[in-house]
Amino acid sequence: MGKDKFELPVIQEKTSCRCSTAAAESQKTIPDLNQSFVSGFVDTPSGRLPQVSSVLVWPDRWGSIKARWGVGRMDYSVNPGLYALGTPDNNSLVFVSANYKMSFDRLRQALAGRSGWILVLDTKGINVWCAAGKGTFGTEELVKRIESSGLKKVVNHRKLILPQLGAPGIAAHKVKQISGFNVHYGPIRAEDLPVYLDAGFKATAQMRIKTFPLKERAVLIPIELVEAMKAFLIIASVFFIISGIGGPLGFWANEGSSGFFAVLSLLCAIIGGAVLNPLLLPYLPGRAFSIKGFSIGIVIALILLCLRDINLSAWSERAEALAWFLIIPAMSGYLAMNFTGCSTYTSLSGVKREMRWALPLEIVCGSVGVIMWIGAILIA
Amino acid sequence: MNNPVYLKDVVTLQLDENKCTGCGMCLDVCPHEVFKMNSRHVEKQNRDACMECGACSQNCPASAISVQSGVGCANALINAMLGRNGGECCCGPADNGKAANDKGCCC
């Protein structure tokens, strides 16, 4: 009890601190007119709202490219609130989106030649699907944003079009209950919106299925690679130094015999897990992503060791070869396993089950491999 | 391309066909065609395709569907195990409202 009493003020302080920022945010009903992509403004009963067009300009595209490479990706957002797309009136449709700028841009781009209202939820700069999974693209935020944006005064209908992938965070029947607005789940992909709208809010079965085609897998590669490269630089330097000073010859001669090969092997392992795995995902063996990554790693290790023309009569070379057969698959398997978060079809229960055996295996293979490799360098 | 399927017999999705009113909302929100409409109510046609996103159970007005929903992201689970970034994936805002993590992941 005494402990509780002692901690209480601290907790309250934190909560009140957060509440005040939240309150300040919700009071700000109108998005900033000075955002780079805002082309003008529209006067409505709920105030002067920013106007946007469905034409993306160079800075929009450049921002999107940068985000894909991890530059400014966590701060790539638009102000939440209500926007006018083109020249909408009080009968125009209302589209709901996330405040990740790429999500917002995709939506307005898909609505070329149409006017409407875009209600942007505060998802902390995260895309619709991820935010829905976390609940930030959620019933509570939607209902709150309907009120704070003054939407009810801007349109005289009570109909919202949400992306289907927002559904994990939204309970349509509760939104209706609380706000009076009917939620219509549009297609998964924004580019299907025109057909959906023209068909009278009817999505075809194809529009409702989340696939994971090559193009969508490929755009995820840069961010995977950038992240893996950070680890690569550290690990590769360690291998390079150990091989240079631990081997039997002079520093550069040692690098020639094992150091450069080590750096190349590590690089190939990362390319296997972060580039080849996404590209070849549906064609790789196994359902578990780690198995896919392991298979790539084994093939890479085979190719590298064949190219190196290794002399398997010496103990140290045998140990070194075996070490790479453990390290490369362990690394590409681990990276492939991390790609579950990017994929569009892995379940939490499934990932937990995979990790239960895959993570220990990757750690053991990796560590045993590293120990063998160091041993091989020292006994050479 | 056929829709890929992850591990078999692992998802927590459960449907109470007696509660189901056959409104078809789950058919609309499911991204992997897990359900199909029978004459009176829906039934599961492809349980292994379920990714536990939770869209169906959230939007079921009859509360006929239950699933332990979450994001199938190994990185988030590892972060949770290590107590990093509040166990978020890549796309998590930290407590201070600023970006928590720049890990490449789902977004």
Give structural attributes.
heterodimer; A: about 375 residues; alpha/beta; Rossmann fold; 2 domains; two-stranded parallel ribbon; 7 strands; about 10% strand; elongated; disordered N terminus; B: about 110 residues; alpha+beta; Alpha-Beta Plaits; two-stranded antiparallel sheet; two-stranded antiparallel ribbon; 3 helices; 4 strands; disordered C terminus
What does this structure look like?
The complex is a heterodimer of chains A (380) and B (107). With 380 residues, chain A is an alpha/beta fold. Chain A contains 14 helices and seven strands. Chain A is elongated. The N and C termini of chain A lie far apart (64 Å). The relative contact order of chain B is 0.17. In chain B, a hairpin with a 4-residue loop joins strand 2 (35-37) and strand 3. Chain B has helices at 25-29, 55-59, 74-82; strands spanning 14-15, 35-37, 42-44, 65-66. Chains A and B meet through helix 4, helix 10 and helix 14 of A and helix 1, helix 2 and helix 3 of B.
Quick structural gist:
The complex is a heterodimer of chains A (380) and B (107). Chain A is an alpha/beta fold. Chain A has 14 helices and 7 strands.
